């Protein structure tokens, strides 16, 4: 179905254009002034903002193997409701996506089941380099390398194996950057403690040094890499300072959870904010904001990682790490930015333009005539109330959020994916319209 959007404020790469927009055959046929020949169903936008759909390059949609926590269908639906139209899914599933057969089977299984466009990461082990050599950089957004243990079975602790990946991987390498040895030592030291006896326990168990020394080592090895490197979920001031001197083929991200809360919030939230790497100090949080503003951290990725609330209610040592971040993303970012006087363009750079450039997304990202029509209609003056825990209004399967009970600024009114109106006024329409994205080398 073609669409004519009337009375929109269109956020292009260079300016804001007031007028109309025309979607024809899934792509932008006109932005600003619609020709008389345009045909399609009319959508009256009432002066709302037309933004490019967000690109989340770091999600855990839990399929296969952890579908009691979330499925690609449920979590992509939550992503859509928050203004995301492209998501790159991580491979630490069960079984992990560490063979080409598993990657292809997952890609095939998602046909017609994703509400957003998607890319699927591949997982590194210390033995699967022969599989990695076969990956197509136009299809696979990256190889995920866990340098420390987290959710799932993936871990590459052998430095020689990492060096081989740097030399021989045909696709981008994305890193969970913590040193496992530091974490094991901390776990042994704090093994007899709990949240009652150590209110910042997770910071103790996943200490800053684990992140800093891992990222320091990666940057020292980076000149030997034959492909781009991307370092995930940066949390410390020291890492931001190290990254300021990084080679041009290295990029980095942080996550909304680290921009919103710090280790000072552990006593109130406990396991709900237990994620890897751990939340750090307020000073570290401020450094993340500076890193974003200065361009040292190019990307914001959510690290969306749903777990059931019952799982999170277990004791510290039993509770899984990770937190859901979907369903309310664009209002969440807008609310964070308003407190710091940041315009919407700040978030469009971190969650649209930079990811589209780094991954060389084909005909996607900014609002450009001829590109695929992935877009969000956003009311910056509206409000979004995040419901309490276990409310069916929560879009994801796990039905809770660390934002529960908060009222956020702004409201996602509608979302188009590949020119299909898939979400409007809190309601999902039709069948999932997401498809695999094409990547550049």
Structure explained in plain terms:
By secondary structure, this protein is α/β, with parallel strands linked by helices. Helix content is 28%, strand content 22%. The chain is built from 14 helices and 18 strands. It has helices at 72-81, 100-109, 129-132, 159-168, 180-189, 201-205, 208-221, 237-243, 256-260, 266-269, 282-294, 309-312, 329-339, 344-358; strands spanning 3-11, 16-24, 27-32, 41-44, 49-52, 54-59, 84-89, 117-120, 122-123, 143-146, 173-176, 229-231, 250-254, 299-300, 375-385, 407-417, 420-424, 427-428. The strands form three sheets. Strands 1, 2, 3, 4, 5, 15, 16, 17 and 18 form a nine-stranded mixed sheet that branches. Strand 1 (3-11) and strand 2 (16-24) form a beta hairpin. The longest helix has 15 residues, at 344-358.
